[in-house]
Amino acid sequence: MSLDWLPRDNELKDLNLWGDEFFGEDAPGVIYKLRPVVGPAGEQPEELYSAWITLNNPKQYNSYTTKMVKGIIAAFHKASMDRRVVAVIFTGMGVKAFCTGGNTKEYAEYYAGKPTEYGAYMDLFNAMVDAILNCKKPTICRVNGMRVGGGQEIGLACDLSVSSDLAVFGQAGPRHGSAPDGGSTDFLPWFLGIENAMWNCISCEVWSAYKMKQLGLITKVAPVLLQDGKFVRNPLVITDRYVDDGEIVYGNMASGAAAKEARALIKQTPTDFSMLDRAVEEIVWTFTNLFPHCLMKSVDGIRMKKKHYWDMAKLPNRHWLAANMTTEAYLGFTAFNSRKLTGADVIDFIKYRQLVAEGHPMNEEFFEAVLPKPQ
After folding, report:
1. Residue 146, Cβ density class (10 Å: 0-12 exposed, 13-18 middle, ≥19 buried)
2. pTM of the model
3. Cα-Cα-Cα-Cα dihedral of 26, 31, 35, 37, to 10°?
4. How distant, in Å, are the alpha carbons of 170, 221, 256 from that of 259?
5. Helix 184-192 with 194-203: angle, nearest 10 deg
6. Tens of pLDDT along 335-369?
7. Average pLDDT, the chain
8. Element (H, E) at 349
9. Is residue 329 part of a domain?
10. Are residues 191 and 286 in the same domain?
11. Which domain holds residue 370?
């Protein structure tokens, strides 16, 4: 029996909340572009794309400003609503950083000392993480460089991470006046286990991509240094053990003279992201050849574990982070932002603890005693 007699409206609806006003090529900002899906033989099926969301603030290590946070929210929504998009690629501009978190200059010069303003900003931040976790397409963090602080947190919100082997991962909050409560304290125990998550959150160490691959934080690592026409591994990583195919499965960072020599080699060696991009294309092609609704139900089934802890903590964390802008965050961000004037990027932690032990009120005299002085 035909149902042609039933009234139907077949015109596609525009489901977007925003236009393209949050996107653009100017830095700092967010770039949103569609790229064709590419198969293993170079085939490009018509009208199938990956959506590339690129943080464009390389001079400040792709740290996100308030405007950029809005752009990220809009971009993930736009990708969710685009019927042609198979997957979303979240990356950064340049070769040094995916993202180092919130823009410290903006934090220090505007939000420091303004808890109500920062609380409103944290509502936007929470919406940014929600936009990634609620995206209706699988999300891949293409880690083109360091993923630290809030950059680590928005990267952790993605479903998969594929990394340059020059990238490092870590937190910086306890050293610079905050806590990794934008997702890391919720997500890292799932990835690293309690002990490693604890140390990674509080030590402010950075760990290599190879170490994070071994610990289960990321999916794939690709070399990006091209020397005499051949890819070479990151010389900063100490190669402790190999598997049969030659892949490094564990790697700590070199130090001292070895690290200095490795950095000099990296500086003079061209960077090529073709292997990293190939790894991304392979994952997107895998997604393309799966039932889309079964794929997203599977993705959401895993995401819900991350979302459970994120949703439990995000509002209390928002209030604490706002209040903290009058105390330790004020000091931490101010010290970091004035480092070119003082030569130091952190406060005097010993003096801070001594004043706390004395019961000294946290006032202007306290701040002046612990902040670094202009040279």
Report:
1. buried
2. 0.94
3. 160
4. 18, 20, 5
5. 140
6. 999 999 999 999 999 999 999 999 999 999 999 99
7. 94
8. helix 349-357
9. no
10. yes
11. 338-375
